[in-house]
Structure formats: C-alpha cells, structure tokens
Specification:
By secondary structure, the chain is α/β, with parallel strands linked by helices. 40% of the residues lie in helices and 23% in strands. It has one domain. Keywords: Membrane, Transmembrane, Transmembrane helix.
Length: 376
C-alpha cells in the first residue's frame, strides 16, 4: 500500500515542501505480545525548495531576542510566569489550527477523561520555556538548575560488555539540551545523530542564523555530532557502527522524518505512534545495548530529571546469522520502546512535543500530529 504524506507537520510546511511516498514493507507479529509492528519505507517524491525566509523566522527571531533579554536581566523566579504569559498571545490561533488534532491524539492514548485543553495550554507554555532554556545557556548567566540523571548504572554496566550503547531519546521539551547535559555532567561522552536542518527553521535564514545557537549549546555536552541527510545515509551508518565498535554511546532522537524507514505501533487506549526504526535495527544487527531516555522539567527552571531506562532487552535477543536483519527482533525492540514511551507520557504528557495521529497512517489524512518536530 502506498500513500503520500508531507515531511513536516502542517505548521512547518512551506508551499514547496518536500513530499514523500510511504509504503508498507512488513507487518510483523510479535507472538508473545500478540501485537503487530508495521514497518514503512519512506521515499522522496519531490525534493521541494528551500525558502529564503518565512513568517516563522520572523517570529522566532523576535522571540529569541526577547528571551535573551529576559535571561540576562530578569530574576529566575519570574521566568515561568513570563513564559506562561507569552504562550497565551496566539492562543486562539493555536486552538483553531492545532488543538483539534492534539485533543484527538492525546485522548486516544491517555483516555477520554483527560483535560486535553489543559494539557495543550501547558504544552504551549513548555515550548516557551524551551526557548528561554536556550537563551539562558547562551547568555552565560548565573542560572544553575538541579539536574538529576537516573539509570546511568545500567548504561555503564552495558558498556562493560564492550559493544557500545544506543540511547533512544524521546522528544520532550527539555531533552534537546538537558538530556545531553545530564549525560555530560555524569561523565558519559555521547555522539548525537542529527539531521542537517536541526533547529527551529529549515529556511536559508533559519539554517544560517536561527539554528546555529541551539547546535552550539548542545555541542558543549557532546563528544561529536553525526550530521546527515538522506543522500549520505550509508556513510553515516558506517560511522555509527565504528563508534559502537569502539564502545561509544550514540544518542538517537525519535524522529521519523530523517530516515528512510519507520514503524507504526499501537499505544495507550486506542492510539497509534510512529517510531524510528534505526535504533532497533542497530541493536538487532550489531548487538549494541539499547536504552530509552526521557528528560522532564519537574520544577520550571529549577529542577530537571533525565531518566535512562533499564536496558531494552527482548527475551530472545539473538542476532540473525551473519548479522542479517531480523525484523521480528526489531519489532520486539520497538514494542519495548513503546512501553517506555507510554510510561513517560503518563508522567508528563504536557511536555511531549510530538503526538502521532489518533488513527493509523493508512487510514488518516492528517497522519502526524502538529508539533515542533525539531529532530535531535
């Protein structure tokens, strides 16, 4: 089955956005779970055209300048209130354009009884706090929040086996900076897999001026950044394999927009989520340890909690002969990752940037939830 869909959510889609054709390549049953994992390929149909400038660029530039002033001159105790106020400036537009799909997706996962509007308004505020987190790091200010890293013992134990580790990160609002910072401050050197358009904009202006500050801050806490686009996926794969063979730690963010394959699996009450397939593929084929990671803002601008899961280890984690692909094993990894994601969503749903649709990709015209899909 083939279906056309857009690379980005509606909010990020310029008129000449790249389009892709998605095709089901496998529907794998995991017998012991009585669940299916559907694998898709994603092929470029139209490359689109990079815009020079967009209205989003203007808004993000103004917000970046504003939050730099706030970070440099306003006491930390007022930051959360400022972000809350700023998040309400365009609330009617967000409610009209984004909220219906958000409500459907969150209710499908968490149940009909949730306060979807309350979660949505909290997410808008969390997005603004995310901008101010970046500004505070850029301003070199006196701000020193408490950052707790949980689960590092399991990661270190896995590294003793000598096959490296993949940390599969969820797209919560604080993961981008504080997830990396938590690992760095614990003495864990990590390599981040990242798309070349990582940041807040894909326009020429955004790539030149808006995205580099975020990348610069993140790089403080990384050993290296593995940047790729769709044309050099093979070379990136080789580089990741070399890092894992040297017993390194590789961070991968759960974005389905970068690679050529992804998966779909049921989640929660009646929802569906889309997960990248690359982390499971590396773990199944190469024997690297696989972990999930979620980073939460437990007290705005005061306390952050980075959680590394116990190792995602299927009951029958055996490598296929000669390293051949074992899609059933990959599906088992996917389900384990889904379980950890659902646990995290139930803890801090208002901080999740990306929600998948409430219907299957093959059934929904709006297959991806609108959100701030900034990759890694």
């Amino acid at each position: 089955m083939r279906l056309s869909w857009f690379a980005k959510s509606r909010n990020h889609k310029p008129p000449s956005a790249a389009t892709f054709r998605s095709e089901i390549i496998a529907d794998i049953l995991v017998p012991e779970r009585a669940e299916h994992v559907r694998f898709f390929s994603r092929k470029l149909v139209h490359p689109g055209r990079t815009r020079r400038f967009s209205n989003q660029d203007l808004r993000e530039s103004l917000l970046a300048a504003f939050y730099l002033v706030v970070a440099a001159s306003v006491p930390v105790r007022w930051w959360a209130a400022i972000c809350e106020r700023m998040s309400r400036l365009r609330l009617k537009r967000h409610m009209r354009k984004q909220f219906p799909a958000y409500a459907a997706a969150t209710r499908a996962v968490l149940g009909a009884g949730i306060d979807a509007r309350g979660l949505f308004e909290a997410l808008l505020a969390a997005r603004h706090r995310r901008r101010l987190q970046l500004a505070a790091h850029l301003a070199g200010f006196r701000w020193s929040p408490t950052i707790r890293l949980e689960g590092q013992e399991g990661l270190r134990a896995a590294l003793l086996r000598g096959h490296g580790a993949i940390v599969w990160c969820d797209q919560f609002t604080s993961q981008t900076i504080f997830g990396k910072r938590a690992l760095h401050e614990a003495g864990i050197e990590a390599h981040q897999v990242s798309v070349n358009s990582h940041g807040v904009s894909e326009s020429m202006f955004g790539l030149r001026f808006l995205n580099p500050p975020l990348v610069k801050v993140e790089n403080r806490y990384l050993k290296s950044r593995i940047v790729f686009d769709r044309d050099d996926a093979y070379q990136v794969t080789i580089r990741i394999q070399k890092i894992l063979k040297r017993n390194g730690v590789v961070l991968m963010t759960n974005t389905i927009h970068a690679g050529t394959t992804f998966t779909e699996v049921a989640i929660g009450e009646s929802g569906w989520t889309h997960l990248a397939s690359a982390p499971a593929n590396f773990a199944a084929r190469g024997g690297a340890a696989l972990f999930a990671m979620s980073t939460f803002e437990t007290v705005p601008f005061r306390e952050y909690r980075a959680v590394v899961s116990p190792e995602l280890l299927p009951a029958e984690a055996e490598i296929g002969r000669d390293g051949a692909k074992d899609m059933v094993l990959q599906a088992r990894y996917i389900l384990l990752k889904r379980d950890r994601l659902l646990e995290a969503l139930r803890l801090f749903p208002e901080q999740m940037l990306i929600w998948s649709g409430s219907r299957r990709l093959t059934e929904a015209s709006d297959n991806a939830m609108t959100g701030d899909d900034t990759g890694s």
